[in-house]
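Assemble and predict.
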Amino acid sequence: MSAEVVLQTEPVGRRGEHLYFALRNPKVAGGLAVVLALLLLGLIGPFFLSDSPNEYVGPKSEAPSGAHWFGTTYFGQDVFTQFVHGLRSSYLVGTLGGGIAFVIGLAVGFTAGYRGGLVDEVLNMVTNVVLVLPALAVLIVISSYLEVRGVVAQAVIIGVFSWPWVARAVRAQTFTLANRDYVDLARLTGKRSWRIIVHEIMPNMASYLLMSMILLFGGAILFAAMLDFIGLGPANAVSLGTMMQQSMAWSSLHLGMWWWFVPPGLAITLIVGALYITNVGLDEVFNPKLREM
Amino acid sequence: MLELRNVWKSYRVGTLGSKRLTAVRDVSIDIAPGEVLSVVGESGSGKTTIGKMVLQLTSVTRGSILLDGADVTARGHAARKAYYRRVQGVFQDPFSSYNPIFKADRIFEAVRESYFPAVKRAEWSARVDDVLQGVRLDPGSVLGKYPHQLSGGQLQRMLIARALLLDIQVLVADEIISMLDASTRIDVLNLLGELKERGLGVLFITHDLSLANYISERVVIMRHGAVVEAGATGKVFTDPRHPYSRNLLASVPQLHRKWSDSDAEPEALEPDGDRDVPPPPLTEVDEHHWVAGV
């Protein structure tokens, strides 16, 4: 009975339907609002502020005030300007690094899981080799050998090393999904393999894929922050991680300069946390069974 | 019409395909138009593999499958697509045959996309309504719903309707009613009977002898990947010559018999041996009646 009611109120079209439920899900709406607000700040903020976040603009070690919203650093740099520029590079690292890892992971995972056999064994071997490489050590070595360390180079390195777990998880899911009868039925309808992967298998993993995208995005941001924090960050730009590294290097914690390290730390936490909450909400959106109960 | 000629199937298993598992051994069967051929056997007898090979979902290791005299095994995508216009299948689990996150009527739309892209939407939905009524479903009550909102019987009938949208000659029905309850079972079974009257050849795969007897003219009994007995349903069921067939027939539960009444011990059977050697050949013991190893 309740199913009938839901059916009649459902808007026509699958995409519209998902959007309809997504926008009415408080978790999705709230999580996305936080992520987008910070993204917006990072995108348009720099246009209203100084182009050089490392410029010495004000008194040293000043607490937040009307002139310097987030206060100033030990050297008199504006923390808010740095923060806004840092957001920008963090989102860039997350998008690029996470995106590269996502594409490689998906390609390897789907190919291995759907084709199976020898193809699977070879790809799985490569995946396992990359998986057991101590990524942090490799990243440290590569990063320290690069002449110019930019945000993009950092993102590419992170992307190339963080795909294996996605590939493994996608492969495992594809294995079980590829054996469902509806995949056979799609083959009986004369569909090609890539169409079956995209139209039959991928939608069933949509929530999972979004989750990996979100985890990779967040993971890349965290990884970048970690590299920055140990002094292997971009040499020519400000990021949230380098801000934290600088603040620690100049003992802001002991000097009580909380305004120097709290904004970047909080921003990283907020971005990653909001992405997780979005993902939980998206699961409810994509699964009609969860939705109707 | 559809003919399997000395078909073998072995799967590669283990690391880098180091071991082989032979699932089907030297099977030759044929289906004529307007005929239901039942393939009966226990789990692991290779009957489902035969269905999958006919549907080209798995490759044939040795031997060939012919449709109207032309070999259809291992061809390109276009040829395979054309083949599926004439040969279709319905599977055992109705709930696994539908992608759970899409509405069930998507299977009809997929057929239009692949085979009738030129047909207008309105004309297509008229055709869908027609075939749905043909399988005695009310279009209004099954269209626009998710699979979990429909019953197993409705879902299986929709799959049959889907097959009928194409001008098929052969339908492979792999255990299609074993997951339905008793009352819907007979409806779907009678539907197969109607398809047969229309001139379709049906490959009916089942483990249930009484169903095979009910619906089919000819029956093939399989064990360990090979045919042990084959022939006209009446002959095989009234006069089973192979010990395995006799055991199978004795094991069918009957309405007026309790388990405590049965005293017959099953006959001793040959154990599963080397599956790579050809199985004992079939010999004709009677008109339209073949038995292995007599």
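The interface with chain A takes residues 12, 15-17, 55, 57, 77, 80-81, 84, 88-89, 91-93, 96-102, 107, 110-111, 114-115, 144-146, 148-149, 159 of chain B (CB under 8 Å).
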